[in-house]
Amino acid sequence: MNLAVYINDGKRLEFDRGRPLPGQVRNRLEALELELDRGVDLPQGRIETPTTEQKAHFAIEQLLNQLARAHDDSAATLWCAYVATRLPELAAIRVTETADSFEVSLQFG
User: Fold this and answer.
1) According to the model, what pLDDT value does residue 72 have?
2) Nearest 5°: CA angle at 54, between 50 and 34?
3) Domain tally, the chain
């Protein structure tokens, strides 16, 4: 099962869980995991010892920020890979934007 990211119903990114990760990507994900183990900043505040779910929530925020900036697709792809490998049941991240806000929904399959 792939993980797809939709913004306003348009598919922006898809991660193929069936394809093996190259060694360089695995190494970057391991380094990212160690970094997140030291704590994450979420809307409710700093979490010094985050759970897998909290780290994934932080990663989803980073993924969406990268897609909104549209500067570096490789960074967005890395965050997407992180989320896909940490939340294997997550099938889609859907973002609906309005003029002054946005709503994120997670679809588990």
Assistant:
1) 64
2) 50
3) 1
